[in-house]
Amino acid sequence: PDVHLSRYNLTINESDMTSIKGNNWIEDPIITLWMKHLQLEHGNNESLLFVIPTISQILKMGGNKDLNDTLNSLEAWWKDYIFMPVNDNNSASVGGNHWSLLIFSRHD
After folding, report:
1. Where is the Ubiquitin-like protease family profile domain (predicted)?
2. Where would I find the beta strands (DSSP E) of 14-63?
């Protein structure tokens, strides 16, 4: 596939770009790119965490050990705000029809 962008160790190709044109579904690589971009842009702010979709799915579908290990590796316990893109896929396979942005606010 034609590569349109390579940044943050991610490759965005033609089919990914098509997903942001018109009334198409936004693909995981675009959301991952954006969350990584936000994390790097706000990296000096230790109270913010932007989670990529694959990690959100692990948190959603994993067991208690996965949940604890993943949150520890992200240092999430000490964040004031956590932004997680979550889709409606409830299986281990690729899929889903709708994305939502879940925002955790320690203060609220």
Report:
1. 10-108
2. 48-50
Q: Residue 91's beta-bridge partner residues?
A: none
Please name the residues in contact with 67: beta carbons below 8 A apart, sequence gap of 6 or more.
59
Q: In Å, how far from its chain's centre is CA 40? A: 13
106 and 80 in contact (C-beta within 8 Å)? yes
Q: What number of helices (H) and strands (E) belong to the chain?
A: 4, 5
Residue 5 in this model has a pLDDT that exceeds 80: no
pLDDT at 81 over 90: yes
Q: What is the mean pLDDT of residues 43-51?
A: 90
Which strand (E) or helix (H) includes residue 59?
helix 53-61
CB 101 within 8 A of CB 84: yes
Give the residue with greater pLDDT, 29 vs 14. Answer: 29
